[in-house]
Amino acid sequence: QVQLVESGGGLVQAGGSLRLSCATSGLTFVNYAMGWFRRAPGKEREFVAALTRTGGATSYTDSVKGRFTISRDNAKNTVYLQMNSLKPDDTAVYYCAARPFSPSEKREDYGYWGRGAQVTVSS
């Protein structure tokens, strides 16, 4: 069974940092591009960041550029999202997603999803 499990969420003050982890199992991790999406209260799920199978290329939504960094450790079958300078608008449930071979910024292109991790940023 393919599983993606997010961890590292929590409550943080504005300006603080968190690092989300997504541990995967049941798939050949090196064959999958990975992405992070988020769903804020009352809003649709939106793209946050993605990276290639090797981690050699990344993409970000404009609102997090310069603050968030996506990375992966293929030896650990894990993808990360380092979040710095957090803002209240970053409050959301963050989802890890996997897609074979090529990354995408469209949620419908991803077939495997984690359950999500809550990130709450207080003002």
The total strand number stands at 11
Report the total helices: 0
Rg measurement, Å: 13 Å
Low-confidence stretches: none
| Helix and strand run | EEEEEEEEEEE
Strand content: over 45%
What is the average of the pLDDT values?
Answer: 97
**Amount of helix:** under 10%
Largest sheet: 7 strands, mixed
Structural class: mainly beta
> How far from one another are the termini?
40 Å
Shape descriptor reads globular
In short:
The protein has 123 residues and is an all-beta fold.
Write the layout of secondary structure elements.
Blueprint: E1 3-7, E2 10-13, E3 18-25, E4 32-39, E5 46-51, E6 58-60, E7 68-73, E8 78-83, E9 92-100, E10 112-113, E11 117-122
Parallel strand pairs: 2-11
Antiparallel strand pairs: 1-3, 3-8, 4-5, 4-9, 5-6, 7-8, 9-10, 9-11
How would you characterize the overall build of this protein?
- Strand 7 (68-73) and strand 8 form a beta hairpin.
- The strands form two sheets. Strands 2, 4, 5, 6, 9, 10 and 11 form a seven-stranded mixed beta sheet that branches. A four-stranded antiparallel beta sheet has the order 1-3-8-7, with no helix packed on it.
- It is 0% helix and 51% strand.
- By secondary structure, it is an all-beta fold.
